[in-house]
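Re-running AbrB family transcriptional regulator to confirm reproducibility after the cluster update. Everything else is unchanged from the original entry.
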Amino acid sequence: MHDDTRTRFRMTPRLTSFFGVPHWPTVVLTYVLGFAGGFVAKALHLPLPMLLGSLLAVGAAAIAGLKPLGHLPQAPQKIRMLVIPIIGIAIGGAARPEIVGEAAHWLPSLAALCVFIPLVHYLGFRLLTATGRVDRVTALYGTAPGGLVETVQMGEEAGADVQMLAMLQFLRLILTIVLVPVAFSLMEGHAVGSAGGAAVAGAPLHIGDVAILTFCAVVGAIVGLRLRLPAGHVLGPILLSAAAHMAGWTEGVPPGWMLAAAQVVIGTSLGVRFAGMPKGRILVALRLAVMNAGVTIGGAVLFSVALAPVAGEPVRAVFLAFAPGGLVEMGLIALSLKMSILYVTAHHLLRIILSVSVARWFGGRIG
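Result of re-run:
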């Protein structure tokens, strides 16, 4: 589903009925549409083409209410969770032994993130409540800059408008993963990523490399979930893959076609979230989400400019570490630009933990 979810998307009854039960012919057609959108975006040289192209194509079909087989576009989240470990082992493949010495320099920006998260959350909450379009509880959990599944669940338990809350969180994620790569493409002067949507360098894969990477993906995801790590389905593979690469056991990474396919699955799973929602509510949620995105992305810009000299990282890397998008999506951008992917990953993991913790604390404060 997104960066900040755990693999087991524990649907509440209302969310289950809202997103629907899979109709497999429709699922197949939805993925065909997602791949078509990805290839069109690639031909147009859009940033992260396979991810954004599939998201926009499927999202547009969902909003338009298209039902070619009698059902709205569908993409089971379990399929997405099966491919996310592929992104995890690719991110871990960027690890090198010298990264240990660099980690000490991340402490100032990690500390700043502890200020950034509650600050932008509070400002976004105050901004949305001032519009009078949503109640305080929905605004509180809808402006959390991370932890989509957790905040939706907490918000529903607190009596929030769960449909609007889910939409605000989905749009927070989608706006960020659309706007950030577009901005980077403008700064770079070319589309972010290769034909597959992310450029990942690695040695040719041999049978041993395939076995090691498969082990890192499968066991990493299982361990990450069993230990209840934040975004465990991607963090587990990242950690095992990073350990394997730092130990010199492998230098391989997943091939470009596999990363491209994984991005289509991820983009499609995001696009179907618009299915069945009243267009009027979508427009209201979109306006509110844009306002909140202005706070979070604007705050990330300010913090990155101030912190870059202290963190010892480029402004772009610090901004990417603070941007409130998904760990997977922001990681792909960092990979394509050959930034310090583990620096970005470490910050997004802390962002998820802080976002959920702050939302829970704020929720207790407003009763």
